[in-house]
Amino acid sequence: MAVAGLAHCLSHRPVGTMLSWILYRKNKCCYPRYYRAAICRELKVPLAIEEVPTRPIQPDEVRVDVHFCGVNFADILTCRGQYQESPSLPFTPGLELAGQVLEIGANVNTVKEGDRVISVNNFSTMAEQCIVDQKKLWQIPDGISYQEAAALPVCYGTAILALEQRAQTKPGETVLVTAAAGATGLALIDVASKILQAKVIAAAGSDEKCQLALKRGAKAAVNYSQGYLKEELKKLTGGQGVNVVIDGVGGDVCLTALRSLAWEGRMVVIGFTGGSILSIPSNLLLLKNVSAMGVYWTRYQKENFPVFSRCMSSALQYCKEGSIRPHIGGVFKLEEINDAFEHVTQRKTTGKVILSVK
Fold it and tell me: What is the pLDDT of residues 158-187, one digit of tens each?
């Protein structure tokens, strides 16, 4: 790598990590032999930060120096044994990262050493290093920080997939977003209002969260903890109902949202942060010809990777253009991972919670 190119790469790195990068470039076999990682050895107990030995990469793999990684409700559920997928113990949780390429395999032609990248890689990103397949990497455009990039994959990938691919949202339609002040909720507001030109009604659990949703682009907001969601939605839509619902709460909120759909409305279920999974009364689907569907975002990696990749590329492009901007609600160090999990489960923050690994 030319001196100028190396300087460009190092300019994106904290000063304390420059020496490690130079040593790695000079002698790969000696650096690093171990790296820190969050380890889940037993379900439903606090995670530990341990020294983990490195392994050689395979021809199609890339070793990434992790700078930031996102904290998602799915990570917490996985560590409780309550997620759709259950990795074998022990494992390192984490679905997304932003970092810099340290080493590439013999067959890798999509990235080079020193590139800034994001990745989606199941159950392994909450660590100082992560080895991923080259197809699971996307380059971070200039102008987007590592911190912002780490907040994009899960939240904005889910938002784009739910609104564009599944709900087929059209300009001018009314979109109801529940759990609107959470990381994915704010991403949904961002994409629906600024990219798709839809009218967003935000539903959240406090007046403060409703105010944040309004600042982020919602046209109206309803505090559903007060028990007036159905009545407020009727007023806000002139009795017509909403065209699209993206629900991440479940339970009674999901049922009320379903009942509030307009003729040929579409509901997309993305999660159950309220803890209760609704059994949908099928007669509600019939009466107004509405549709109910789901988004299990990471499964698109296996079932329809081109769509998955397009959502990732779109998120990066929208952010590069300044059309969207992730809202960072909290930054924790890697060794504070249990505090970060508690922060998310107790809903102490709004927006995206991320871990700073450096």
Answer: 999 999 999 999 999 999 999 999 999 999
Helical pair 337-345 and 73-80, crossing angle rounded to 10 deg: 100
17 secondary structure, DSSP code: G
Q: 312: part of which helix (H) or strand (E)?
A: helix 305-321
Degrees to nearest 5, angle at CA 145 with 149 and 99: 60
Per residue in 222-252, pLDDT (tens digit) is 999 988 999 999 999 999 999 999 999 999 9
**Residue appearing with tokens 């803890």:** 275
CB-based contact 353:330 (threshold 8 Å): yes
Alpha-carbon distances of 57 from 1, 29, 103, rounded to whole Å? 21, 12, 8
What spatial distance separates the first Cα and last Cα of the chain, rounded to whole Å?
24
Measured between alpha carbons, how far is 49 from 36 in angstroms, rounded to an integer?
6
Instruction: Decide: residue 132, CB within 10 A, 0-12 exposed, 13-18 middle, 19+ buried.
Output: buried
Q: Could you identify the residue written with the tokens 């197809």?
A: 135
